[in-house]
Amino acid sequence: MSIFDSLRRAAGSAARKEAVKAVNNAAQTAAQNVGRGKNRSESFTFASLPETVAQLQALPEASLDSPFKTTALTILALCRYEQNPEDTIAMLNFLKGPAEVSGYEKQFIRERLRERGYIPRSYLSGATPQNGYQPTQPYTVVVSENPYSFDNENWATLYVTSGGADNPRTIKLRKKPSTGQWFLNDIQCLSDIRLPVADDPWA
C-alpha cells in the first residue's frame, strides 16, 4: 500500500468519525428541544393549608430547590390572606428569600384580594365558580412550564391554572446560585376571574 493510499484511508476514517459525531450531536440537540417543547407539569398535594410561616416551612417543598415547589407554596400562602393577611405576608417573605414583600406589593395584594379571597383558592384542584371555589381535599396545586419558562439564566416563569379563568396565569421566580434555591419574584396570578355563581347576578 502506497503512502497516498494510507493517507486516503486515514482521511476517510477521520471523516466518518466526524460524521458520526455530528449525527450524535444533532440527535442530542433534537432530543433536548423536544423535551423543552413539552409543557411539563408537576402536581403537589397537601393534607391541609398552612396557617403560619412555621407550618409552611415544615412542608417538604419548603426546601425551595425547584421553582415548581416555590410556586406551589406561593399559592398556599395566598390562600391564607382572606383569614389573616399578616400570616400571608410572613409566608411570602420567606418565599422571597433575600428580598421581602415591598409596600407596593402589599398594596397590590390587598387591592386584588379585597372581597375576592376566592382567587387564590381557584388555583386548587376542584375549585370552580359553581361550588364557590371550594377545592377538593387533599389540596392539590398543579404547576406547569412552557418552552420559554427558563429562557433567562437563573429566572423562571411558571404557570398555574384557575378554575375560573380560560388561560393559565404566571408566577415569576429567581434562583440564588449559591444555595440552588428558587425564590418568589413576582406574583402575576391575581387578576380577576369569574365570580362565584352565588355572587354573580347574571349567573
- Main sheet record: 5 strands, antiparallel
What is the tally of helical segments? 6
Q: What is the element string, with H for helices and E for strands? A: HEHHHHHEEEE
Helical percentage: 25-40%
Taking pLDDT < 50 over at least 5 consecutive residues as the criterion, the unreliable ranges are 19-37
Classify the secondary structure makeup into a structural class: alpha+beta
- Average pLDDT works out at 88
Euclidean distance between termini CA atoms:
90 Å
So what's the overall shape? globular
Report the portion of residues in β strands.
Answer: 15-25%
3D architecture notes:
With 203 residues, the chain is α+β, with helices and mostly antiparallel strands. It has one domain (41-199). It is 39% helix and 17% strand. The protein has a 5-stranded antiparallel sheet, with helices on one face. Strand 4 (169-176) and strand 5 form a beta hairpin. It is globular and about 80 Å long. 31% of the residues are buried. The model is unreliable at 19-37 (pLDDT under 50).
